[in-house]
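ugh ok fine here u go
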Amino acid sequence: MSLLILAGNTCYPIFLRWILRAIRLMIPNHEYFDQFRDTLDFLLDHPRRSYTTLFPSAHTWWLLFSVIILNGIDWVAFEVLNVDNPSVDAIPRGSRVLDGLFQAFCVRSGGFYVVNISAIQLGTQVIYVVMMYISVYPVVITMRHSNVYEERSLGIYADDPPTNDDPQDSSSDTPRSPFSMAPTAGRIYFIRQQLRAQMAYDLWWIALAVIIICIVEAGQFTRDPVTFSAFNIIFETVSAYGCVGISTGLPNQLYSFSGAWRTLSKLVLCAVMIRGRHRGLPVAIDKAIMLPSDKLFKVEEEDAQIRMQRTVTCPTRSRTSI
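structure:
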């Protein structure tokens, strides 16, 4: 179940590349399979020109490393923070380790859990909220980072002023694009910008949804402030936004916590799920979905000329700065 959860969500690009690599290694060295071999070689050498969620080798290893780190945090939090929790202590020690690992895999995408969410320690619930919110970030950041047209999507080429090697012009008052430093700032700058953009943009949707739901459910909060607490509403909303499916539940009911909400709150939650499912991805400028055309060829030529100019002028800038 854990492998299926990973293969169908965050680790789908990893499994896909490994499957293609395994097929490439198993193809017999015969001229009949030359076309198949060339096709697989092109997919492995130029993955982002062929498919949106097929990444180069380095990006795939980075995605695997991030998945291990995030799931490891969930696993350790479940095992360490619930040491004196009766619901967790009731599980035998050997099974508890395996159950904690399974719940770590499920909390970001699967929607299953081995222990009732409302029964685990509060700190673990907070960590689960954070992990559900960032569940798609590793794939999205890797997709944007490996996109061959990412510069154009960020507006680097569209808004950058012409290159000028004169150091006296560097103090001019001409406004520059905030992304103009992206090609020279490195990958850390790019990842930081993507995290900032994702959190700043998407967080408003969740905050607005939580405020509306809290206003609508104010009467139920007055009658039962423990069950209808603000944290439970936040947990349910983030779970819907991340398309996870886990819920804190209700004390004496078999359905999820949102089942006791009013109709308007449920509609707001549906809107949150739709928004979370269609987060902003590089679809408008992604090479993998762009059909061959004269406009595409023109874009490729423009980008090639700009990259060549930057390559020629960067050493000059470095010497001038030194």
